[in-house]
Amino acid sequence: MKLLAIDSSGDSSSVAFIYEDEILSYSKIHARKERPNWNNLLASVGINLQIHISEIDCFAFGRGPGSYTGIRSLASFMKGLSWTQKKPLIGISNLQSIAYQAKTKADNKQFNVINVALKSDLDEVYFCKYPSSDLLENQSDEKIMSFKELSDPMLLSNPSAIYAGNGWDDKRIKLDANSIININSDALSIAHLAELKFNNQDKFLPEDANPVYLKDTNYKKISDE
Q1: What is the pLDDT of residues 135-173, one digit of tens each?
Q2: Against a cut of 0.85, is the pTM above it?
Q3: Rounded CA separation 21/25 (Å)
Q4: % helix / strand / coil in the chain, to the nearest 5?
Q5: What residues contact residue 185 under an 8 Å CB cut-off, 6+ apart?
Q6: Right CATH number for 2-93+185-223 from 3.40.50.720, 3.30.1130.10, 3.20.20.330, 3.30.420.40?
Q7: From the DSSP assignment, how many helices (H) and strands (E) are in the chain?
């Protein structure tokens, strides 16, 4: 299988390419409002150099939540690739990407819940709860939470939970630093999750792979998060 995944939902962009049993990945840090040159990003993992884009079996991308500008730009680019190449397109939650990485990093710990919190731009976070399962299906809806809600002792005192994402790294959150896995989404975890989904379902249409903002988009177009 040949699967190409890109994430560009915040202050960095990354690309991952699964080629049979091999995986290539690359990431680039940039200002939040900047977008990478897509062709250069693809070339960093050999696309259109060693491998032609037409050889890709499936495309995947981080569909949000995150930076409105980044998610909108990436979704448009990936939909274009999927439509022109007539290949499946899978949108993966950026919160689920963080949960996947946390599950891998915390494999030696005993837990059954992954609480993910990703910082937004207005002193709040994107939040979702996941069970410790292979497909990491949502245990709760993705939503926006204030730091007051996030600091609820009931949420922070679950001994069977781990806490992933940069949203927990705040002085208002009374958590032991050792219980926080401070990570962001990336294309590599998105590629792995997309591969799992692709192997469990046979139809992923580009018109169904839509960005998720969670916030009012009219506001975000003005603020350009």
Answers
A1: 888 888 999 999 999 999 999 999 999 999 999 999 999
A2: yes
A3: 14
A4: 35, 25, 40
A5: 7, 9, 10, 62, 66, 94, 95, 97, 98, 118
A6: 3.30.420.40
A7: 7, 10
